[in-house]
Amino acid sequence: MQAIQFKVGKPTECSNFKPDVVLVQNLLKAAADRLRDPSYDPGEPDGVVGRNTMRAITSFQDRFMHRPDGVISPNGRTIRELADFAGWAIWRKLNLFAFGHDEPAPPARGTKAPPRPEERRGMSKALEIARTAQGCCFPIPMQPMRDMTTGARYFGAPRKDKNGLYRLHGAVDLICPVGTPIFAVADGVVKTKIRHFYRSTGEFAIDHGTFWVRYCEIAMKASRELGLEPGTKVKKGQLIGFIGIMRSSSMLHCEMYSGEATGTLATRAHKKPHTRTVKDAPFNRRRDLIDPTPFLKTWIGNLPVLTQEVKEMAEAAKKSAIKARDAHFARLDAA
């Protein structure tokens, strides 16, 4: 079932069928509310593509397009991105998809079938994640100890350095005890070895097929003992690491990428100068960085179940991580 029947947007190129326009305006309002960005809000849905609606469309497209075109096609990328960021509640309310199935309901006789995978190049991989999210699991076996959408933990949170300059947080932080086991959210292939991230913690990345996850602030020694190397295949729910500790805080710093770009995820090549205003602040990450929040909110209903063996491994990992933390700061104090 298509979300809209005809193109919506630029009047010279689109039909702007009133029911389609109202639907798009509702989705834009939901995305504006969820992403806390008023530039995506077209105002009260009236079925008319005016200046405010065009501004909202192009502002939203600016998240993932180098040159926003102001056009929303029935099976195009923009409508799929809206489905992702507006959230499942608005989709259910508007009855856009047949729920309870991994695949869309079959088309009615005489209607055009959905595009095959090979025809879907350029469409959002992020929506494919959301539509299969019920098959993914949460990366830790517990609810985070603090709200992942508040404080300095949410995606896009402004961070200020000692000079008062800003950058943006490119992840969601899941606060949990040191030593907490980390699980693969879906089947995938390890892409990087476990290496240093920050202070005494490490990080590595897994390609999960339609998206990448970078698992950061992990206990390096205990996680390396699991034997994961680049090229290793992992299964959904497989133990892949343990939470490390910096000075007193411990968390999983979870970054997500659509997989539409190539190259390293976070190196000096991506670093831009911090700015004096939040508006222009950089993420300093690869250009296909995406917000993990809507996915984590869905996956949190599917927590991994711990076995006694994993609990014992977690306790050993906790001791190892604390020891590494103490050694790290001892070296700093001695320097």
Give a topology summary.
Elements: E1 8-9, H1 18-35, H2 51-61, E2 71-72, H3 77-86, H4 88-94, H5 125-131, E3 158-160, E4 166-168, E5 172-175, E6 181-183, E7 188-190, E8 195-198, E9 201-207, E10 212-219, H6 220-224, E11 233-234, E12 239-242, E13 251-257, E14 289-290, H7 293-299, H8 308-334
Antiparallel strand pairs: 1-2, 3-4, 5-13, 6-12, 7-9, 7-11, 8-9, 9-10, 10-13, 13-14
Helix pairs in contact: 1-3, 3-5
Could you walk me through the main structural features you see in this protein, from its secondary elements to its overall organization?
With 335 residues, the protein is α+β, with helices and mostly antiparallel strands. The protein folds into two domains: 124 residues, no CATH class; 199 residues, Glucose Permease (Domain IIA) (Distorted Sandwich). It is 27% helix and 16% strand. The strands form four sheets. Strands 5, 7, 8, 9, 10, 11, 13 and 14 form an eight-stranded antiparallel beta sheet that branches. The protein has a two-stranded antiparallel sheet with strand order 1-2. Strand 3 and strand 4 form a beta hairpin. Helix 3 packs across helix 5. It is elongated. The N and C termini lie far apart (64 Å). The relative contact order is 0.12. About 12% of the residues have low confidence.
